[in-house]
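Q: Please design a sequence for this.
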């Protein structure tokens, strides 16, 4: 089961559904079935909400059940198998209903509609939900999802990307209308806060080395560069890149997998005894590392060296480090080449 499936099956259930089922429908009077319903979306975390302020997303809308005047739900054909779920209780959903289980069962039915992922599929890949009943494109902060009729719905906002981040959202199970506990009335326009998760979008840099003069009798020379990137006060990338030159001119090496928006420092840690950095420049910084526009290259980081008249043959060994989720671990050259 992919990471994405595991995540959505453990997603938080909408507070709107909890509110809707907390009080007996009889205490709220009959539901006015001709009243149009709608949902307003928002994002829970303030930092994420600020980044998503100008972003719209496609929301998949699945109708799980219709509702009658008394507040009793009747499953749609697509979700008829939920009738066997003990939480369904013949459509009489109340405060004792285990809403997490009900949402998981609804999601499992949807995922069962999609073809099984091939065995060799990437464990980190996202599983696509099947065709929704309706899909709506709306803003993620204050955007509205209109509904054709009242009932029990599963909303699945699709992932989006901002300048630096890739976002995914947990599906939302909710009943429309919902119960306003203070006024004791049915609310046909509901507001829900979505749980969002994000990962840095990855980009790269091109380290460009210019060698002004070269002593061919010394053979090839290798230059080593330490690349470190920090974002929000955290070290998010650390590795070493190597570039070997056999003559004067300009060559480059590309370093990928660096989070966009990071502060990157590239330091030339080895240039051989016979070649010195021009002007003593051994470190270059890139603030807020950008993602390249379509058709453009990664940001370039230039270094220039010159022959210093010393006759010292060159040799170097490159160590590679990878982040395993807890820290940076050394990787052998054999492992790195696999």
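A: Design:
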């Amino acid at each position: 089961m992919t990471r994405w499936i595991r995540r959505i099956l453990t997603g938080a259930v909408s507070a709107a559904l909890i509110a809707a089922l907390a009080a007996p429908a009889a205490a709220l009077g009959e539901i006015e079935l001709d009243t149009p319903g709608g949902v307003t979306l928002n994002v829970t975390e303030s930092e994420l909400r600020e980044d998503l302020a100008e972003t719209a997303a496609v929301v998949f809308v699945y109708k799980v059940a219709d509702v009658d005047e008394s507040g009793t739900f009747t499953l749609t054909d697509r979700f008829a198998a939920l009738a066997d779920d003990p939480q369904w209780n013949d459509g009489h959903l109340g405060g004792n209903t285990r809403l997490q289980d009900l949402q998981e069962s609804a999601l499992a039915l949807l995922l069962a509609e999609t073809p099984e992922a091939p065995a060799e599929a990437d464990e980190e890949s996202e599983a696509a939900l099947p065709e929704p009943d309706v899909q709506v494109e709306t803003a993620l902060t204050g955007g509205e999802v209109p509904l054709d009729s009242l009932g029990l719905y599963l909303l699945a906002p699709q992932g989006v990307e901002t300048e630096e981040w890739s976002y995914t959202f947990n599906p939302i199970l909710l009943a429309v209308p919902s119960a306003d506990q203070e006024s004791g009335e049915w609310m046909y326009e509901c507001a829900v806060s979505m749980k969002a998760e994000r990962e840095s979008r990855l980009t790269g840099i091109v380290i460009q080395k210019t060698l002004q003069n070269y002593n061919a009798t010394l053979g090839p020379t290798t230059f080593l560069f330490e690349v470190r990137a920090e974002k929000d006060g955290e070290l998010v990338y650390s590795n070493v890149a190597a570039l070997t030159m056999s003559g004067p001119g300009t060559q480059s090496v590309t370093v990928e997998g660096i989070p966009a928006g990071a502060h990157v420092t590239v330091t030339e840690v080895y240039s051989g005894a016979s070649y010195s950095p021009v002007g003593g420049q051994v470190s270059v910084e890139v603030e807020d590392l950008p993602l390249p526009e379509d058709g453009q290259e990664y940001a370039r980081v230039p270094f220039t060296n010159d022959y210093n008249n010393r006759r010292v043959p060159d040799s170097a060994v490159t160590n590679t480090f990878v982040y395993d989720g807890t820290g940076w671990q050394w990787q052998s050259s054999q492992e790195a080449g696999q």
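Q: Thanks. Anything notable?
A: The chain has a mean pLDDT of 83. The chain has two domains: 3-200, 202-336.
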